[in-house]
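Before going further, it is useful to explain how the protein records used in this thesis are read. An example of such a record is reproduced below.

***
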Amino acid sequence: MTGRHRDGQPYASVYQRVWDGPARAEAERLDQTWSDWTVLYSLGKRAFYAVASWDDPQLVVVEDPTSEGLEERMQEAEMVRLLQTTPTPHSGEERPPAEPSGRGPARRRRSPGGRTA
């Protein structure tokens, strides 16, 4: 990039520094690899962030100082989501305990007079 500081002075070449180039490149790689996530690198915090792009009313954001750690956090968030959306057997209702004899529910015997014994 070139610029002039004062009129009449020759153009000066200005070095443009790319801060944290490898980290930003790694964030771009993760962003392309994980299709359900948007991955960013924060220069201010020197940390990786990922925002889930799921169809969910709650925003899911994970962060970590390393790209490896961020991937672990993303996997954990996906597992939590999977467990929350997986239906439980019997629609969450408790099933009555099985009878050990296999003969069905226990019944009370009635005495000949009609009273319960």
Q: What stands out?
A: The beta strands are 2-3, 12-13, 37-42, 47-52, 61-64. The mean pLDDT is 80.
